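TICKET: design request
STATUS: open
ATTACHED STRUCTURE:
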């Protein structure tokens, strides 16, 4: 049974404060407070009214001039917040994720749900269409919301409520192109496409490389999408987070201090396990040429994505050790780039 004492106490207090004031003035003051609060937090306070206390609901409705139908519509929409941990502005169709929700990384500021307008607009308004989409996702447990971002670019958000850990993956157009390559198991093309996607997301296509800042600030939503697509379509054989796990298990530490005082043995051990190096005819270790990588599921765990050009935007660090114990030539750019990428994965909790 819900406790209504807090709601009743709130009602009494508010009445005492605002009763001496004209109704329109008290409404303006409280309305301003609620509007500012809702704008800052994206939380509609009417969703949290105690549904068992009709007096409180009537009081607020009367104070703010809302009809009972309007309030009930808002209360009904609360179900979508609970199930998907997100909310939609009924008028603008702007999409918001609740704080710490499983969709928080997938939804960005300015996102709007994209609705195909019906041939007869009188039959159904756009918000009703959105409600039907959300109803279907909740019923099926999986589904996709078509959106447009703040730059009017189309994207999609894939939602899965059936897995042990609910997922919400953002897919801009370029990531949808990556997904198609992975679906078709075109691993080499997907590897090259992954780097193109990273350049596009980081606004570094003109420069043609990723610098330190762009890797350190790479959006978690896009990093999550790239990683989950690689893992899904390879059956957990490939993926950035899989590589990160191997990287840490081989003794590599994801800290700035370790980056400058890295362990060559640990770094080479990682590259050996993912088979990016091989032993040459003279018995010395060499980097495996890109075209000789194994672009199939026969490859070792974590072999892909290789992202061979990841290092090109890094600056040289002269204090690094450039020759491994087994004579493998190392570059500070490669070490920095890989460590920064895995550090970003760690920060994004991937």
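STATUS: resolved
RESOLUTION: sequence designed for all positions
ATTACHED SEQUENCE:
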């Amino acid at each position: 049974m819900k406790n209504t004492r807090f709601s009743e106490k709130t009602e009494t207090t508010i009445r005492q404060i605002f009763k001496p004031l004209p109704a329109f003035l008290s409404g303006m003051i409280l309305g301003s407070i609620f509007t500012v609060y809702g704008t800052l937090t994206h939380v509609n306070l009417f969703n949290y009214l105690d549904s068992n206390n009709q007096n409180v609901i009537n009081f607020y409705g009367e104070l703010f001039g809302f009809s009972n139908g309007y309030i009930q519509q808002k209360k009904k929409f609360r179900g979508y917040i609970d199930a998907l941990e997100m909310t939609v502005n009924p008028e603008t169709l702007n999409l918001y994720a609740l704080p710490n929700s499983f969709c928080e990384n997938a939804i960005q500021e300015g996102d709007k749900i994209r609705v195909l307008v019906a041939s007869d607009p009188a039959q159904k308004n756009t918000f009703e269409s959105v409600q039907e989409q959300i109803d279907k996702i909740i019923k099926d447990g999986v589904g996709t919301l078509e959106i447009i971002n703040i730059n009017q670019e189309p994207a999609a958000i894939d939602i899965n409520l059936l897995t042990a850990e609910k997922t919400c993956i953002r897919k801009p157009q370029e990531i949808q192109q990556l997904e198609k390559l992975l679906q078709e198991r075109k691993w080499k093309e997907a590897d090259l496409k992954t780097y193109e996607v990273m350049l596009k997301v980081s606004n570094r296509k003109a420069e043609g490389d990723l610098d330190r800042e762009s890797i350190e600030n790479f959006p978690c939503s896009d990093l999550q999408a790239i990683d989950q697509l690689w893992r899904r379509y390879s059956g957990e054989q490939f993926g950035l987070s899989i590589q990160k796990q191997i990287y840490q298990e081989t003794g590599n530490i994801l800290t700035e201090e370790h980056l400058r005082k890295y362990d060559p043995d640990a770094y080479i051990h990682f590259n050996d396990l993912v088979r990016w190096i091989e032993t040459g005819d003279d018995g010395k270790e060499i980097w495996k040429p890109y075209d000789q990588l194994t672009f199939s599921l026969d490859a070792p765990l974590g072999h892909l994505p290789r992202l061979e050009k990841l290092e090109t935007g890094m600056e040289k660090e002269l204090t690094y050790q450039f020759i491994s114990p087994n004579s493998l030539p190392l570059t500070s750019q490669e070490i920095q780039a890989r460590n920064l990428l895995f550090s970003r994965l760690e920060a994004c909790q991937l």
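CLOSING REMARK: The beta strands are 86-88, 95-97, 112-113, 142-148, 154-160, 167-172, 277-279, 285-287. The chain has three domains: 1-75, 85-165, 172-350.
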